[in-house]
Amino acid sequence: MNKKALVFFIMVLSLSTALSACRTSSPANTASDNNYSRNEPASDTDTNNVRSSDTDSTNKTASLIDSDSIKELNSKIDSSDSDLISSENLDTNTDINSETTETTDTELENQDEEELRISPNPSSIELGGITLEAKYVPFDTPLELSSMERIDSTFAKDTLYILDKKTLHRYTLQDDSITALEDIALNSKYEKIDSDVFGNIYMSNSIFNPAVLNPDGTLTEVDSTGKLAMSKVMDFGLSFDGKEKISPYNTIEYEDWQLENISEDENSFPFSKINDVEFVENHILVGGIYNDGKEKQRAAVYDYDGNLIALTENKIMGDGIDSLTETDHGLIAASVSNLSLWNTDGSEIGQTKSGQTAKLFGTDNPVWINDIFAMDDSSVLALCTCEREDGKYEALLYKLWGF
Q1: What is the CB neighbour count within 10 angstroms for residue 24?
Q2: What is the three-class DSSP state of 286?
Q3: pTM exceeds 0.90
Q4: Is the dihedral of CA 188, 192, 193, 194 positive or negative?
Q5: May I ask the CATH architecture of the domain 117-401?
Q6: What is the pLDDT of residues 253-312, one digit of tens each?
């Protein structure tokens, strides 16, 4: 029984009890008032008086019930209705307010995210007679990264893969449109990512066995050491790890592969420290500290047999080569926030100076150029990281034109 029905039942019961009490008490009270004896019959006049008195008493009682009790009952019923309605409304309003609060919180979070989002205003710069222009490619939603550095990427079959330690972000990239796909959680922290001719995605570091994302979506491990760089045109890869020599990976044809001028004397190895190895269509790019006693960062271009084609003539600005790529016009290296350009023979075109990179990418805070690689449309894709006002790190993607 609901609250309203219960209250109504109690009130009806109270009314019935009151009526019964009135009917029982009225004759006795009337007889007493008129001094009637139990042994003496009343006269007709007295009887008429009793009936009249009884009728008047009943009418008075009914009138009293009508005027007071019924009003009270109606008041209680109305109050009960009001309480029920208020309770129902309160519950409904609580649900509505809760939903509204949740919606408002989500909207505020999205609004705050959009307000904090970096809005670059890229431009063009002149570098050694070359006009380098940057075009911003915005993510559909801001991509927050764990740090400024040690972020790497690769591109395979219209999909951009961004490696952030234990998370693999995936995006479809067609022309200048980028759309997020589902992230993949990894079991270990990785620093380098690359893809091979078959569409396998390799994630590696200097400690754990590399993880491989196969075209069917499964994750496996391969038995290898060091970071892996993979060819996009043939079944060939190279493993490198800091000061250790570069060695072939997953190949029979290049089992005895080695760089030019390597002998049994390890001091003759061209690099005392290797920062990066990249495969381009017909060449292998190696960047690091060149072993000539001058401790300069230099980049070298080799063919697939390990023969030296070009060596950059001047040292590269910055703390270490983060990425290398090659276009039809020459070689580009990224080192922290600096870009360096060379001709195909290794002669220098130019290196960005303080403020030029900020102007090129159009940000207030300095960017860290994590990765660069040449695209089929003659542009160079640049993945950068920039710190926001809230202290978080946001990924910024650009296409560079003009070289």
Answers
A1: 10
A2: strand
A3: no
A4: negative
A5: 6 Propeller (2.120)
A6: 555 566 665 544 555 678 888 889 999 988 999 998 887 777 788 899 999 888 899 999
